[in-house]
Specification:
This protein is of the alpha/beta class and 97 residues long. 42% of the residues lie in helices and 18% in strands. It is built from 4 helices and 3 strands; from the N terminus they run βααβαβα. The protein has helices at residues 15-26, 36-44, 62-74, 85-91, and strands at 3-8, 50-55, 78-82. It has a 3-stranded parallel β-sheet with strand order 1-2-3. Helix 3 links the parallel strand 2 and strand 3 (78-82). Helix 2 (36-44) packs parallel to helix 3. The longest helix is centred in the C-terminal third of the chain and has 13 residues, at 62-74.
């Protein structure tokens, strides 16, 4: 089974707020440190196929984009991709909003 999540890049543009949003949307544990190192650690520990679609990808903070890219390089089970609103409906990810 594949975990599929949809994130809104507009909510990932400012780091302090982005970490709260990521914790809620990705179901991170209470011990999540809400910083880029902690995000990287949790993303690289994913052991089940996981796809994270990001709408408004261009709005994401560059450091978050880099962390996602680095985590994908370390974890073959993780895929993070840009997705426009029309594609979200085509892929049926609206149920994950």
């Amino acid at each position: 089974m594949t975990n599929v999540y949809e994130l809104d890049g507009r909510k990932l543009s400012a780091l302090p707020e982005a970490h709260d949003y990521l914790k809620d949307m990705l179901g991170f544990p209470d011990y999540y440190g809400k910083n880029l190192d902690a995000l990287f650690d949790l993303l690289t520990e994913v052991s089940r196929e996981t796809i994270i679609w990001v709408t408004h990808y261009e709005m994401m903070h560059p450091k978050l984009e880099r962390t996602f890219t680095d985590a994908m390089g370390e974890n073959p089970h993780l895929t993070v991709m840009a997705l426009d609103e029309d594609e979200a409906e085509d892929y049926g990810t609206e149920e994950y909003r």
